[in-house]
Amino acid sequence: xxxxxxxxxxxxxxxxxxxxxxxxxxxxxxxxxxxxxxxxxxxxxxxxxxxxxxxxxxxxxxxxxxxxxxxxxxxxxxxxxxxxxxxxxxxxxxxxxxxxxxxxxxxxxxxxxxxxxxxxx
Length: 121
Known about the structure:
This protein is mainly α. It has helices at 16-61, 82-120.
């Protein structure tokens, strides 16, 4: 009679945590690559917005409001990517932990089933 072999382990790609981990890793890499371009574009948008506000104030009050602060436009944006990094990092770590835990559980499981099959024979 044919006994079920211990080599019928499921592949790691069968786990949904593997795919979450894979797509989060790809998203984090894409975010790292697109980050500088986003920062430059966001700085330009915020400079334009501040200029429009200053022009609107000048028209409304007929006074010149010139701020004495010079801010580096590439680093001083109001909207940043850190929340996306935080969410991706959190999901990535949870997915990795669950993938690792399931992988360890699968590695231990065939040993116990193999010993049960040997005892039954």
